[in-house]
Amino acid sequence: MTDNPARTIDREAIGLDRAAINDLRARLRGPLVLPGETGYDAARSCWNGMIERSPALVARPLGTADVSACVNFAREHGLPLSIKGGGHNIAGLAVADGALLLDTSLMRGVFVDATARIARAQAGCLLGDLDRETQLHGLAAVLGFVSETGAGGLTLGGGFGYLSRQYGWTSDNVVSMNVVTADGRLVRASESENADLFWALRGGGGNFGVVTSFEHRLHPVGPTVMAGALAWRGEDAAAVLEMYRDFVAAAPRSLTCATALRLAPPAPWLPPEIHGRPIILLLACHTGPVDEGQRLVAPLKAFGSPVGDVLQPRPYTVQQSLLDATQPKGRRYYWKSEYLPGIAKELLPKLVDHAGRITSPHSAVILFQIDGAIGELPVDHGAVGNRDARVVLNITSAWEDRAQDEAQIGWARAAWRDTLEFSTGGTYVNFLNAEEGEDRIRAAYRDNFERLVAVKRVWDPDNFFRSNKNIAPG
Questions:
Q1: Domain CATH number, residue 71
Q2: Is 285 inside any structural domain?
Q3: Together in a domain, 216 and 269
Q4: What is this structure's pTM?
Q5: Are residues 276 and 213 located together in one domain of the fold?
Q6: What is the three-state SS of 320-371?
Q7: Does any domain span residue 163?
Q8: How far is CA 329 from CA 88, 156, 301, 363, 364, in A?
Q9: Which of 26, 30, 94, 263 has the largest count of CB atoms under 10 Å?
Q10: For residues 286 and 292, is the Cβ–Cβ distance under 8 A?
Q11: 3-state secondary structure 204-247
C-alpha cells in the first residue's frame, strides 16, 4: 500500500520516522505491516476476544534472520517486542500496545526424522501442523488438546496433553531450541549447549529470547486410537465424578481421561432435548492397541445411562482437534486454574455446585488427568517444575457479550476461591489470565522461581523480553 494517515499518526506516536521504518523493511524478507494496512487487524487479533491491543508495527518474518533484525530494531529504538505464534494464550501475551509485534505465523515448517524420532518445528507452528506431519510416520509429539494452539507458546510454558502421563510435560520432550537472544545473536540451547538457557526455556515462557525452532522427541502413536467422548445428564454428575475419580486412579498410562461439567452444546451426537441443559462429559484417549483400548474403556461406556457416546476408534489427528469447536477465536474467555495433588472426595460436590451456577452455554469446570511420567523427574529438571501435580483444575468462563463480563468473570473467581484449598500451591503458567501478576507467576514456578531470575540476569539483564508473564532480573 502507499503511504496513508495511519502511518503518519503511528510514526509520531512511537517516535519513528519514515527512514527508520523503511530501513527495517529493507532488512526483512517477510512483510512489515502498519496500522491501517491490510493484515494489521488480523495480525493483532487474538483467540481471546477480551484482548484489544494495538501494536505500533507488525513484522511477519520468513526466517531466523528476519527475527534477529526485528529484535535488533526493537532494542535500538526502545520498542517493546511481543511474539505471536498461535495467539491462543488466555492472557493475550502475543500482543502489546505500542510494540513491534513479531507474528511468526508464516514460519510453519515441520521436518520429521522418523528414524531418529525427532521433529523440528518452526516458531509459528500450530499443534495441528506437528500432528499432521508426524502422524504420516505413526509418531507424535507430546502436545495439548486444541489443534489451533501455537506449539511454541505451549512448549515454553510446559505443555501437557493426552501423552503426558506416558512421557511428561511437552517441555520434557524437547531436545533443543534455536534462540535469538536480546542482543540479536542466534544460539542453540540443549543439554550440552547453553544448558542454563535450555533449562529456563523448558517452562519459563518467553522471558529469555525468541525461539525460532524446536526439536521435539517423538513417540509411537496411532494413526488410529480408541478415543472420543461420553456424556451423561447433569443430575448424574455426582455419580459420574465418583466413578471418574476411581477409574483414573487405576488407569494405565496409555489411557488419559478428562471430565467437564457444562451446558450441553448443540452437537449432533447429543440428543436435541438436552441441548442447553447441564451435562457431564468424559473425554478419553488410549494410545495403545485399539483392541486393548476398547477393553479398557468398556466400563466407562457401561456406566449409568449415557446420553451421548462417540468413544470409538478414530484417527489420532481427529482426537487432537475434537475440542477445537468449543474454543473459537474471538469469544471472550476468562480462566482460573490450579494444580491438584489428586481428586479429593470433598472437592466433588463443590464442582457440581459451581457447575450448577453456569449461565453461559460455553463455560465449563474441567479436570485434566496428568499423573504418571511428569512426577518421575526431579522438580528442577526444567523450569516448569510442579512434579507433584496429578490433576489440572481449569475453571473456564467463556461468553459472547461484553455486557456479561462482570457476571461471567465473577462466576469463575467464586468457583476458584471455593476450590483453592485443594491446590498443590502451583498453577499452570499458560492458563494465567491477563490480570494475574507476580504472586501467581511465583505460584507457577514455586521452587524454580529464583533460579529463573538468575538465568534472566545472564541472558536478558535489561528485561528486553517483558511482554510475557514476566520474570524480572531483579
A1: 3.30.43.10
A2: yes
A3: no
A4: 0.93
A5: no
A6: HCCCHHHCCCCCEEEEEEEEECCCCCCHHHHHHHHHCCCCCCCCEEEEEECC
A7: yes
A8: 8, 21, 32, 15, 17
A9: 94
A10: yes
A11: CCCCCCEEEEEEEECEECCCEEEEEEEEEEHHHHHHHHHHHHHH
Same domain, 231 and 356: yes
Please state the domain count of the chain. 3
**Residue 469 falls within a domain, yes or no?**
no
**Cell 494465567 -> residue:** 432
Mean pLDDT split into 10-residue runs, the chain, 474 residues: 35 70 95 94 94 96 97 96 95 95 97 98 98 98 96 97 97 98 97 98 96 98 97 98 97 97 96 97 97 97 97 98 94 97 97 98 97 94 96 98 97 98 97 94 95 97 96 90
Identify whether the C-beta of residue 40 lies closer than 8 Å to the C-beta of residue 100.
no
- 215 and 161 in a single domain? The answer is yes
Q: Which domain holds residue 84?
A: 5-103
Burial string for 319-332 (b: 16+ CB within 10 Å, else e) reads: bbbbbeebbeeebb
From residue 416, alpha-carbon distances to 27, 196, 406 in Å are 48, 35, 15
**Residue 468 maps to a domain:** no
